[in-house]
Amino acid sequence: MAIHPIDYRYGTPEMRAVWSEENRFRAIVAVEVALARAEAAHGMIPAEDAETIAVCAPGARPERAKEIEAEINHDMMAIVRAIAEVCGDAGRWIHYGATSNDILDTATALQIRDSLALIEEKLKRLLSVLLDRSEGTKTLVCAGRTHGQIGVPTTYGLRFAIWASEVARHIERLRQMRSRVIVGQLTGAVGTQAALGDAGIDIQATMMEILGIGSVDVSNQIIARDRYAEYFMFLANVATTLDKIGLEIRLMQRSEIGELAEPFGKKQVGSSTMPHKRNPIRSEQVCGLARIVRSAVEPALLNNVLWDERDLTNSAPERVIFPEASVLADHILKVMIEVLEGLEINHEGIRKNLMLLRGVNLAESVMIELTKRGMNRQEAHEVMRTASMQALAGDRDLAQVLGEHPEVTKFISPDELHALLDPEVYIGTAVRQVERVIEKLRPLCS
Questions:
Q1: Which candidate in 48, 97, 245, 317 could, as Cys together with 196 as Cys, close a disulfide (CB 3.0–4.6 Å)?
Q2: Which residue, among 416, 419, 413, 358, has the nearest Cα to 388 in the 3D structure?
Q3: Which residues contact 297 (CB under 8 A, 6 or more apart)?
Q4: Helix segments in 253-294, DSSP class H
Q5: pTM
Q6: At a CB cut-off of 8 Å and minimum separation 6, what does 271 contact?
């Protein structure tokens, strides 16, 4: 019976497959095969036995390993015996010179490699969608907001470009971290390679070359968990960006704001009791699951703090956080891509909110111009602050209020005031910034 929602509600088939019990077993088998081949290459075991292991080991079954584990209560040794059983006499060499985590941690590297490949593809798709959205809205002026209050204008294109830039940095981080995170080891008990003799370093290098991954420079009985912590912090960082985007969509879909809306199916139901509801449930799911992904960071960091050359306190947490954080991070990436692809933009709602304060949100524009024409900047700030409060209190146009201030009309004519209070022209270099970002980041999508 399924217990965890990953089993029946969340996650893509491809990422669930990476962290499935079956794939974990296959990764361990692949590492044992690479170990045998590396040892044969350096004359430690017969080449024909290594070949037999390569041919026969994939025939081992996780079900048999579980039967053995029930008897001996050691998961790795159970797998070793299950593989040895199908390799005949050559099975005597399975796991030769290795300790459990040489195999387990190296298998984890294979899973991380495949996990990051899937995440990178989705990050590139997300980046592409954000750049497309940015291009399409680069001149769409909207109300900027700080502290939840309307400020000077911005553009939706700039918002999308800022998110795109953040996603691009995640792609860069992913590519930079591969060499640090996707590594295996063959260092034996406590890390000395004593069981491998003088050839230990070379055998380790050959083994990792066979697997196509990096090799630790030095290790004790396990790979240092700062490497894995970086992986989890990366997932948390990605999840937080998605959380950030999802929150903004939710805020802009509020009934009283109404600038954005998630895609909504023709037969989709918003509420079990309020038939009119159209809730941003996908963005809410992203924001909610991001919390779970972030929660993996603390145990990942604590897993690097172990007794002496090793203890087992990292093992149980890793069995949980690797599949959970990886699957959920991948899942919310997919969901956010779908949300942004189908995102509805309400131009009328955007314009309504932009003009809601009747020019008060352009007070800075007038303040800057007053300063240019001779007024002290601090005095100009106070003049505009006072006028803005008057306009808000009386629900009046700021231009009308300013027309009653001689200290303003002394410098600026009524026609000039109306031009200064036009939000369409007070967006600075927003369009150029967007175009620059698109040109810079588009190559990362391929």
A1: 97
A2: 358
A3: 229, 232, 233, 236
A4: 281-294
A5: 0.95
A6: 277, 279
End-to-end CA distance of the chain: 41
Angle at 379 between CA 374 and CA 382, to 5 degrees: 140
Q: Which of 134, 171, 128 is nearest to 433 (CA)?
A: 134
- The span from the CA of 293 to the CA of 345, in Å, is 29
Q: Does residue 326 contact residue 231 with C-beta atoms inside 8 Å?
A: no
Measure the CA–CA gap between 380 and 388, rounded to whole angstroms. 12
Mind telling me the catalytic residues? 147, 271
Q: Rounded CA gap, 248 and 345, in Å? A: 13
pLDDT digits (tens, 9 = 90+) for 416-442: 999 999 999 999 999 999 999 999 999
Cα-based torsion angle of the residue sequence 96, 98, 103, 106 in order, rounded to the nearest 10 degrees: -120
> Which tokens sit at 12?
């893509």
Measure the CA–CA gap between 196 and 183, rounded to whole angstroms: 19
Residue 149: φ, ψ to 5° = -110, 145
* pLDDT tens per residue, range 80-107: 999 999 999 999 999 999 999 999 999 9
